[in-house]
Inverse folding.
């Protein structure tokens, strides 16, 4: 069976591209590093791929605002390609900085390019947060978390601007439509807004959301950093058959793309 093609989009400041590339290849995809300038020049086309991933990092040094400049590039020079990609029922994943980009393009939460309704603000702690956190996987229609609903994942966060924020009306709409995919949770497995289990003060403990189709996912934690058992700090205490918690997210995406 032919492997789904994944476009790992790169630009200045992106620094999680290699880990994301590895995660998707381990999940069974064929990946290619594509610089944003290759899309702009026409030497690469988004239509050639089944999955688009925006990795973590600090695109353009997060100048102006985290993810802002890359979002402007995507909506100004690649709007038609993005719209066609999404309308073709293909998958989009934004991790950390990629999540920040997706909300600033308008692809999240409503797939309306140019309409910004949510943001990722500076952490309440006012400093960069880097640690392993618990993520509760909500029941949703998200393609990336099929079979994981109700489980508690251990995933790493590494961000300075990860506080999910929006107005009360939009927040309620996101909740009502079942678009919350991940919530920060305490050791008891329950969602929490308390620091440090919630590393940034996100409203409703939101760590990741999807669009109404479940095919576009944005999340602040880094699943690509836990696709091998030995990547977890407590791996020696884990059973030998432990499945890395981040790997299933990538496998779900690859399986969906294979069947589409």
């Amino acid at each position: 069976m032919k492997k789904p093609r994944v476009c790992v989009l790169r630009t200045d400041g992106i620094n999680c591209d290699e880990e994301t590339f590895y995660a998707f290849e381990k999940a069974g995809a064929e990946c290619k590093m594509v610089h944003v300038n290759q899309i702009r020049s026409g030497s690469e086309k988004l239509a050639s791929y089944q999955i688009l991933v925006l990795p973590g990092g600090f695109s353009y040094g997060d100048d102006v605002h985290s993810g802002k400049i890359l979002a402007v590039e995507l909506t100004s020079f690649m709007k038609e390609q993005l719209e066609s990609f999404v309308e073709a029922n293909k998958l989009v994943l934004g991790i950390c900085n990629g999540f920040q980009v997706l909300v600033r393009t308008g692809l999240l939460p409503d797939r309306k390019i140019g309409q910004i309704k949510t943001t990722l603000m500076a952490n309440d702690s006012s400093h960069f947060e880097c640690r392993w956190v618990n993520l509760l996987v909500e029941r949703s229609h998200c393609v990336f978390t099929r079979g994981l609903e109700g489980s508690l994942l251990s995933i790493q966060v590494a961000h300075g601007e990860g506080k999910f924020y929006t107005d009360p009306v939009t927040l309620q709409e996101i909740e009502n439509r079942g678009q919350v995919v991940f919530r920060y949770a305490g050791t008891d497995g329950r969602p929490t807004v308390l620091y440090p289990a919630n590393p940034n003060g996100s409203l409703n403990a939101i760590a990741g959301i999807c669009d109404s189709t479940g095919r576009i996912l944005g999340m602040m934690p880094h699943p690509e950093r836990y696709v091998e058992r030995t990547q977890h700090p407590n791996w020696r205490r884990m059973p030998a058959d432990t499945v890395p918690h981040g790997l299933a997210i990538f496998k779900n995406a690859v399986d969906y793309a294979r069947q589409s």
User: Anything to note?
Assistant: The chain has one domain: 5-259. Residues 5-259 form a domain with the Rossmann fold fold (CATH 3.40.50.880). The longest strand covers residues 129-137.
